[in-house]
From TrEMBL:
Gene Ontology biological-process entries: auxin polar transport; auxin-activated signaling pathway
Gene this protein is translated from: PIN5
Domain of life: Eukaryota
GO cellular component, one term: plasma membrane
Assigned protein family: Belongs to the auxin efflux carrier (TC 2.A.69.1) family.
GO molecular function: auxin efflux transmembrane transporter activity
Function summary: May act as a component of the auxin efflux carrier.
Protein name per its UniProtKB record: Auxin efflux carrier component
């Protein structure tokens, strides 16, 4: 049962993030320390250095031989359900688009498992909750954040090659403009163009350390746990000196981004509400479907649903900012998501106590 001490632990875990956020905000809005161009450079530093090492660090310290593969299967099914729904929406609805499908996928599926999830799950379900939420973080980093990187890089390369938008309606020039592509200069897509585009995308992904940081960490975890030896201290220290700055510098970069917007709620009230619904309703609902499909029950079922309702991943904002896609929506989701997550998650915890 959650007590005030447990609530305090969650607050202790999240308040430092807001301190970093406010320092970043103040450095631009109040003190004029950084210019917009320098803010972009800071975000790139986070994207290519601190976050990959942070990802490697926690992946290298798990025990892959004790992972719950039914739980992982349920998580995969839930993500695939969301991908199918968003693909149909983009294809069949006049309001659907490729760009908004990417952002909606981030909102529905990518969670801040480590910072908020670990202390909260420990309070709710003990070590079982911690183990499962860490496992979901590793799988998220290996598969789903890599998938997000792929579709973002595909979109970016697509626009640079002046191909028509995958979800664009030729009758609606705004759908081309949304991706920065000139309804008069685009070239028709054919097999040769597609192969050329995919080559560009894979080369860029191969040069992005976020694509393989978690995979290298997981390989190390397999080797270390199979033959029972630890990471050399010189290697561990080299990783930790950067990885410990991961979430702090990410929040600092988000604060800079907020300071450069005209409004505190950068994306507006309507999109904020939609983002919260996708985060705290659609994501857990899809996870419930996946969990039932593989036969999860008891505490594992409850943990699966609650971890899907954790607040928005900070990494998703960093990627959105780097690739220029709805960073205002993702930043708002991170900030407000962490504010409202505690009462929402406690409500889920209370309701799911009646589920067997």
């Amino acid at each position: 049962m959650i007590g005030w001490e447990d609530v305090y632990k969650v607050v202790v875990a999240t308040v430092p993030l807001y301190v970093a956020l406010m320092l970043g905000y103040g450095s631009v809005r109040w003190w004029q320390v950084f210019t917009p161009e320098q803010g972009g450079a800071i975000n790139r530093f986070v994207c290519y250095f601190t976050l990959p090492l942070f990802t490697f660090d926690f992946a290298a310290n798990i025990d892959p031989f004790k992972m719950n593969y039914l739980f992982i299967g349920a998580d995969a099914i839930s993500k695939l359900v969301i991908v199918v729904v968003l693909a149909l929406w983009a294809k069949c609805s006049s309001k659907g688009s490729y760009c908004w499908s990417i952002t909606s996928f981030s909102l529905c599926t990518l969670t801040n498992s480590l910072v908020v999830g670990v202390p909260l799950m420990k309070a709710m379900y003990g070590q079982l909750g911690v183990d499962l939420v860490v496992q979901s973080s590793v799988i998220q980093a290996i598969i789903w954040l890599t998938f997000l990187l792929f579709v973002l890089e595909f979109r970016h390369s697509f626009s640079l090659r002046n191909f028509p938008s995958p979800a664009a309606d030729d009758k609606d020039p705004s759908s081309h403009l949304e991706q920065g592509i000139s309804g008069s200069t685009h070239h028709p897509m054919n097999l040769s163009n597609f192969c050329s585009l995919m080559k560009i995308v894979w080369i860029k992904l191969a040069m992005n350390p976020n694509s393989y940081a978690c995979i290298i960490g997981l390989v190390w975890a397999f080797i270390a746990n199979r033959w029972h030896f630890g990471m050399p201290s010189i290697m561990e220290g080299s990783v930790l000196i950067m990885s410990k700055a991961g979430t702090g510098t990410a929040m600092f970069s988000m604060g800079i981004f907020m300071a450069l917007q005209e409004k505190l709620v950068a994306c507006g009230t309507g999109l904020t509400v939609i983002g919260m619904i996708l985060k705290f309703v659609a994501g857990p609902a899809a996870m419930a479907i996946g969990s039932i499909a593989v036969g999860l029950h008891g505490d594992v079922l409850r943990i699966a649903i609650i971890q899907a309702a954790l607040p928005q991943s900070i990494t998703s904002f960093i990627f959105a900012k780097e690739y220029g896609l709805h960073a205002d929506v993702l930043s708002t989701a991170v900030i407000f998501g962490m504010l409202v997550s505690l009462p929402v998650l406690v409500a889920y915890y209370a309701i799911l106590e009646f589920v067997h």
